[in-house]
Amino acid sequence: MYTIDVDAKRNFLRLTLEGFWTIDTVRAFARDEQAAAARLSCAPGDHLVLADLSHFKIQSQEVVAMCKAFIDGATNASRRLALVAGPGLARIQYKRVMGRDAMRMFPTVADAEAWLFEAMPAIAAPNMPVAPQRHYRARAVPKIAGRL
Predict the structure, then answer these.
(1) Is 108 exposed, middle or buried (0-12, 13-18, 19+ CB in 10 A)?
(2) What is the CATH number of domain 2-127?
(3) Taking a C-beta distance cutoff of 8 angstroms, is the pair 59, 25 a contact?
(4) Sequence-separated (6 or more) residues with CB below 8 Å from residue 98
(5) Which helix (H) or strand (E) holds 90?
(6) Is residue 147 over pLDDT 50?
(7) CA-closest candidate to residue 54, choices 102, 135, 112, 122
(8) N or C: which terminal CB in the chain sees fewer CB atoms within 10 Å?
(9) How far, in Å, CA of 67 to CA of 23, rounded?
(10) pTM
(11) How far apart are CA 69 and CA 122, in angstroms?
(12) Domain edges within the chain
């Protein structure tokens, strides 16, 4: 249902969430994630987290609410939290848990890692490739009156 990989050298946690969770799964995950963060050598709240939700199913409202409460009230919240989610309804649901300025959603792991480590190229460069930042510009859509 979930894995937590600890990269103590970069003060980084990589979370992989999968399947359909129960309230008990959320409780276990919250306990395990906070224990993993406490094992890092950085000051509390100075670590980075990437949560891969690519295979996380649409969850019950209770599970979503509990996940949001955990993120909002974590005793050792990360400096930055990147969520990776594919397109679809699940992505819309994940947006509900977003509430912090230092939390972003990305379509790929490479994009998420680039954002997480952009302020620390000396740390990120030897261990992983950093994807270039992508900038998206809105296009003007011409109005077509009277045509359908």
Answers:
(1) middle
(2) 3.30.750.24
(3) no
(4) 83, 105
(5) helix 89-95
(6) no
(7) 112
(8) C
(9) 9
(10) 0.74
(11) 34
(12) 2-127
Token pair belonging to 97: 């848990």
Q: Sheet with 103-106: list strands edge to edge.
A: 2-7, 12-19, 48-56, 80-84, 103-106
List all residues 6 or more positions away from 144 whose beta carbon is below 8 Å from its beta carbon: none
Report how far residue 139's alpha carbon sits from residue 141's, in angstroms, rounded to the nearest whole number.
6
More reliable by pLDDT, 119 or 140: 119
Q: Kindly report the three-state secondary structure assignment for every residue of 25-89.
A: HHHHHHHHHHHHHHCCCCCCCCCEEEEEEEEECCCCHHHHHHHHHHHHHCCCCCCEEEEECCCCH
CA distance 132 to 140: 25
Please report the DSSP string for 106-140 in residue order: ESSHHHHHHHHHTT-HHHHHHHS--PPP----PPP
Radius of gyration in angstroms for the set of CA atoms belonging to the chain, rounded to a whole number:
17
Is the pLDDT assigned to residue 123 strictly greater than 70? no
Give the relative orientation of helices 23-38 and 61-73 as an angle to the nearest 10 degrees.
20
